[in-house]
Automatic annotation (TrEMBL):
Residues 208-244 are annotated as: Disordered. It comes from Pseudoalteromonas denitrificans DSM 6059. Residues 419-606 form the VWFA domain. It holds the Pfam family VWA. This is Nitric oxide reductase NorD protein. Signal peptide: none annotated.
Length: 608
């Protein structure tokens, strides 16, 4: 009974203390794509992610009901850092959905014209608002509509303590006339949240981790390994408290609490916890403790690479390649080592029976595109007289002056002068199942086999390679067919011997593919990239670093006259592929099982 009364009271008092308009709430997931388009269209970094951010601590003067309910310690605010723009999980500030949605879009536009760092939060926001309103006059109407609604929600200046009134007056003046306020009085509390402005980064400065004498690349942490709409959690790092001695104080209500120390030392424990994500989503704050206990009984095994006897066959000592460092904005020479390889245990194989009917149909279609000779009519000179053109000329000359035109037929060859290199992602993610019977790698193998059948039928020069990686010193470049080889059962056997593994260092693979394709003497050169996800690796090659390096590799290929085109089955590809390949440089296959038949069709469209 007491628990029921307490829950009813909690719901009642929390609702009374709330200032949100729940009926007009707009969530981040509803506007994430629109906000991303606005952000990038107005000049925001194409490599930045647009993500939801959890509420953050905000020291503001609270009302009596808010104190009683214990609410409003945290508020949803917008901010950005070098890697992403963080917008609130939901906005219910205004009484109408249209205004709440406009607030999302306004914040995205403001962030596109803002730096991550603030010299003075209020002065900088004024300047940025003023700049964007001058640059885009059409935003003035929306801004002042939101401002009018926001001012109605702010407390009356006369109701505030005298020491807080000067700051509130300055804030209102700055909102009404951006750039007109140069001094903001100091108070013990922050002003009521100004939702039309961006806030400084909410990142907590982490203490440096204990040095474990590991490779420098392994020390570089990754902010986010999975893209999602879930909000970012506030984090803090503390030293592991050694409090085993002394008085023990035990409170029963802490027995079922999760908000204590989360032991996440993956150097010692690499087990999977199915409930870890659910627990993390329920926590407001995740506390990490750096604990390095020595376990003398543990056996450390490096499972990153197979032993030489079980691995694919390396070809040569490897090729050194550069890599783009977006932080220093320069190409670092000899940064990566690419290792050409041949699939192990591959032998000559026929085309699988399951693909025979489809291959026969595709071959017949592509044979019609072969280099054939055609008659060109009404030519000024040629091998023989064009009877139809001569009759037209004869009849018109009887009736009056006839226009001069060609009277001959010319026999000319229609030659397809192009080469294509197909680069396929064979990383560990391709081992995932699409349905009960097919994996991604199975679909990729079928696609490459049918692609080979199609290009052999049309007679175009082509090559096929696979790629994966384990850090920058081991980028695997699997040779399936080079330009000098014919498409034989040996090539079919290599494709069917492919095994998924490792990671996706796309930039180095594209640079090597560019080298191979650029030396071909054809006038048209097409670089097709087949992948199921974005660039990534277990060192620093994650997030923006991998995106920027791949972007530079694509630009290098274009400067050499190549046409890169990406084919992906990643449903979130719209968030990063337009930056990498351009709006018309990629396509997304919604149903992965259709990839084998779609790939030859796409090639025909790109080369016709």
């Amino acid at each position: 009974m007491e628990e029921w009364v307490g829950s009813v009271w909690h719901k009642y008092i929390t609702k009374k203390a709330s200032t949100d308009f729940d009926d007009a709430k707009v969530t981040f997931s509803q506007v994430s794509k629109s906000a991303g388009m606005i952000f990038r269209a107005l000049g925001g970094s194409p490599a930045k992610r647009i993500e939801a951010a959890a509420p953050r601590d905000y020291l503001v003067r609270r009302s009596f009901l808010q104190k009683v309910s214990g609410s409003h310690h945290q508020l949803s605010l917008a901010w950005q850092d070098k890697t992403s723009l963080r917008l609130p999980e939901s906005i219910a500030v205004f009484p109408t959905k249209s205004l709440n949605k406009d607030l999302y879009l306004w914040l995205a536009a403001l962030a596109a014209h803002s730096e991550e760092n603030f010299q003075h939060w209020a002065k900088d926001n004024q300047e940025r608002v003023q700049n964007i309103l001058q640059a885009y006059p059409s935003l003035n109407k929306r801004y002042f509509a939101m401002l009018d609604a926001l001012l109605l929600l702010r407390p009356s200046i006369s109701t505030l303590p005298k020491e807080h009134q000067p700051l509130e007056k300055a804030v209102i003046q700055a909102l009404k006339k951006p750039g007109s306020v140069s001094e903001f009085p100091m108070t013990n509390y922050a002003p009521q949240a100004i939702y039309l402005w961006l806030y400084p980064s909410a990142k907590v400065q982490m203490a440096p981790p204990v040095d474990n004498n590991k490779n420098h690349d392994e020390k570089e942490s990754v902010e986010n390994k999975q893209q999602s709409d879930a909000a970012r959690k506030k984090t803090e790092r503390i030293q592991d408290p050694q409090t085993r001695d002394g008085m023990m104080i035990f409170r029963l209500e802490n027995l079922f609490s999760w908000s204590e120390f989360s032991k996440m030392n993956r150097a010692e424990d690499d087990t999977e916890d199915d409930d870890a994500q659910r627990v993390a989503e329920d926590l407001d704050k995740i506390t990490l403790s750096q604990q390095q206990d020595q376990k003398s009984a543990k056996l450390k095994v490096d499972l990153d690479l197979p032993c030489a006897a079980e691995d694919d066959i390396p070809l040569g000592p490897g090729i050194k390649l550069p890599e783009w460092d977006y932080k220093s904005q320069r190409l670092k020479a000899d940064r990566c080592l690419l290792q050409p390889m041949l699939p192990k245990n591959s032998f000559a194989q026929k085309l699988p029976i399951t693909l025979s009917a489809t291959a026969k149909k595709i071959r017949s279609q592509f044979q019609q595109l072969q280099s054939v000779k055609q008659w060109y009519k009404a030519q000024p000179q040629g091998e023989e007289l064009d009877i139809s053109a001569w009759l037209d000329f004869h009849i018109q000359s009887k009736q009056g002056p006839a226009p001069e035109k060609g009277l001959y037929r010319s026999f000319k060859s229609n030659h397809r002068d192009l080469s294509c290199l197909l680069l396929a992602d064979i990383s560990m993610s391709t081992d995932a199942h699409i349905d009960n019977t097919n994996r991604v790698i199975d679909v990729i193998q079928s696609s490459m086999l049918l692609f080979g059948e199609a290009l052999e039928a049309v007679g175009d020069d082509f090559a096929m390679y696979g790629f994966s990686s384990v850090k920058r010193h081991h980028v695997r470049f699997t040779m399936l067919k080079n330009f000098s080889e014919k498409y034989t059962d040996d090539v079919r056997g290599r494709i069917q011997a492919l095994q998924p593994g490792f990671y996706t260092r796309m930039g180095a693979a594209i640079r090597q593919a560019t080298k191979v394709l650029s030396i071909q003497k054809n006038t048209q050169k097409l670089l097709l990239i087949l992948t199921d996800g974005k660039p990534n690796d277990i060192d620093h090659y994650e997030g923006r670093f991998g995106i920027e390096d791949t972007h530079q590799a694509i630009l290098e290929a274009k400067r050499l006259g190549l046409r890169p085109f990406c084919i992906t089955i990643d449903q979130q590809a719209d968030e990063y592929l337009p930056y990498l390949f351009g709006s018309d440089g990629f396509t997304v296959i919604l149903n992965p099982t259709q990839l084998p038949t779609k790939l030859p069709q796409l090639y025909h469209q790109l080369t016709s």
